[in-house]
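@channel sequence for tomorrow's demo:
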Amino acid sequence: MQPIYDFVEKAEENDQPFFVWYGVFLPHAPHDAPQRLFDKYKDIAPNEPTAWYWANVEWLDEGCGQLVDYLKKKNLYENTIFVFTSDNGWVPHPKTRNQFIRSKMGPYEAGIRTPMFITHEGEIESRRDTETLASNIDIAPTILRACGIEPPKTMSGLDLRDPAALEKRNRVFVDVYEHNGNLDRRDDLEDGLMAHVVIHGWDKLVALPENGGAIRSRQIPLSDRDELYYDLKSDPDDRNDLASENAEKVEQLSDMIDTWMKATPKMNSK
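C-alpha cells (generated this afternoon):
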C-alpha cells in the first residue's frame, strides 16, 4: 500500500485533489491467502477450493480496509468518494483449486452480475439494492458528476447516485469476448465476440453471433440455439432457457441488441 500512501501525501503537499485507481489482483487465482484466513472458512465452505477462494476475498477486504484506515487517519476519508467494482464473477470449481465453472468469460449471471458500490461519508445514504440495473460504464460519469464535471456526450453511462435515472433506463448490455483480443483488429467489434447479452428488467437474452460456436468450444454449455431467453425473477442463476416458448420476447430483446449495436460508434484504430 505504500505507493498509494506516497501518492496521496504528495497530492496533499501540493494542495491537489487525488484520484487513485487501485487495480487489485486479488481475489484472482492463485488462491493462496494466508492459512489463518483459510482456516476461517474450511469448515463452513461447501468444498476446499471454495474455502480458499473465500479466503482470497477476505484478503482483498483487508487491503481495502488498510486504505480506508489510512485515509481516516489522514482526515481525508469524509472527503473521498470510493467506488468498488469487479470485472467478472467467479464460481470455484468444487474439485479443483484455482479453477472456475459457469462464470468467468461466459454470459452467465455468476460471471457478469458483479458487486458494485459507492461510498461518500455524509453524502451518499447507505442502502443495498439488488434489483436496479447498473453497469461499469456508469462509473466514469458518476465520478465526473460528483466532481462537478459534465461528462462528454460520448459517455452513455448514468450517475449511480441517481436511482431514479437508473430505474428509468431499466436495461444493460453486455458483450462477451475471447480472453485475449487481437490488438491489430481492435476496430472490428465482431473479432473475438462470443455473445451479446441484454438484460431488460428481469428478462435476459443471450444472443450468439455467427461465430458463437467459439463459446461452446470453450466447454461452456449453452444449447444448440442461437438465442437463449431467461426469466431472472424466477431463475436468477439463468439455468432454464425459455426461448422456445417466448418467441415474442426473444424478438423484442433481439431488436434491442440490434438497435444498441447500430448506435455504437466504430472504434478509431488510428
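heads up for whoever presents: The helical segments are 2-13, 35-41, 48-73, 109-112, 139-146, 163-169, 213-217, 247-263.
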